[in-house]
Design brief:
By secondary structure, the chain is an alpha/beta fold. The chain has 6 helices and 9 strands; from the N terminus they run βββαβαββαβαβαβα. It has one domain: Alpha-Beta Barrel (TIM Barrel). The protein has a 9-stranded mixed β-sheet with strand order 3-1-2-4-5-6-7-8-9.
Amino acid sequence: MVKIASENNCKSLPVAEEFYSVQGEGCNTGRAAYFIRLAGCDVRCPFCDSKTTWNINNTHNISTVAEIAARAAASQCRNVVITGGEPLMHNLDALCAALKEHGLSIWLETSGAHPLSGSFDWICVSPKTARPPIDDVLIKADELKVVIANADDLAFAEQCAAKAKQGCALLLQAEWDSKEAAYPLIFNYVLQHPAWRISIQTHKILNIR
């Protein structure tokens, strides 16, 4: 088992994959970005489409933060998304510092289940009922993106929104495998609660990463 970054001063991290694409969901939908998907997750949503990131093992590339930042900068894209897995399982201070040295804008995608580390230009918290977000992370979210499969998830979304900062973007996104039932549920809810917006997973519609 490979040790996570908190055990090696966060100078290297387990990378599940890196790729250049377009952000497919949330407030930054349609914007080009370089994605850094870190391995390791203890939230483990049953609908996860990146289950290969759950366990850190020898199939993942252990890279120094300098190497990761250099690859991101080489993409010529100014936006970088740090995702997972659950990226906040790792201390992200050194990675963010290395990315900032290249003048990159850093976006975080997290469940918020672990303490915040690193410095970000945009924080998206996608909270999960199995392991709810920490209040200290939730209050710093620029975007709250809640996955919806049923009416109970809408109640959970409101609980999280009540702890978010003023001005936080509030988004509801259908759980992909339940989308046929979830779409009308979300549509009607947004009509009745206009503070919320609908997030569509356009990358799945376009069949891109």
